[in-house]
Write a structure and sequence with these properties.
By secondary structure, this protein is of the alpha+beta class. It contains 6 helices and 7 strands.
């Protein structure tokens, strides 16, 4: 098994997991909002470097307390070049994956601090069982719709750099 991870803006591989790295599903005790931000940053770096981790599943994602994300690969599998359409499909799967163990509003709020509206909007089209990895969709809970709604609301509210419009909280005057 090989572990691929980004360190100092370079994609690295190792036969041993990096220091303190454990499968995400075994790291629930450390999964706090501040760590979610760091995990988002680590994952985002993959896309900035032009790489896709491939099909995401809970068994392939590992992390440590510093927010380093590593992906496990078996045999000759390795990271793929980013698709021409960008990181949207990967980001969609990433948001759904994190939402399986962390509250939706935390996953989306922390994502808004890392990705811009265009990047988040590109993920929205892929938050559907038709586009998500089958192993991710099959892993409980069935949360893709919850992520899609939360992401839509965040996009409707606009960029964090601007003042929030809170469009999804306004009441229409009769």
């Amino acid at each position: 098994m090989l572990y691929y991870f980004v360190e100092q803006e370079r994609l690295l591989s190792s036969r041993e997991p990096p220091s303190g790295v454990k499968p995400l599903k075994h790291s629930l005790g450390i999964l706090q909002p501040s760590l979610v931000s760091e995990l988002h940053r680590s994952f985002c770096t993959w896309g900035r470097l032009g790489f896709s981790p491939g099909s995401l599943s809970p068994n392939r994602v590992c992390c440590n307390e510093e927010g380093l994300v590593a992906f496990c690969y078996k045999g000759t599998d390795k990271p793929l070049p980013l698709l021409q359409i960008g990181a949207g499909p990967d980001l969609a799967a990433w948001l759904v994956l994190l939402d399986k163990w962390m509250e939706t509003y935390v996953v989306i709020a922390r994502a808004r601090r890392v990705w811009n509206l265009h990047e988040l909007a590109s993920a929205l089209s892929f938050v559907s069982p038709a586009f998500l990895p089958p192993t991710l969709v099959a892993h409980p809970p069935d949360n893709w719709e919850r992520v899609a709604v939360a992401l839509s609301l965040a996009l409707a509210d606009g960029s964090l750099a601007e003042s929030s419009t809170n469009r999804h909280w306004r009441r229409e005057k009769a």
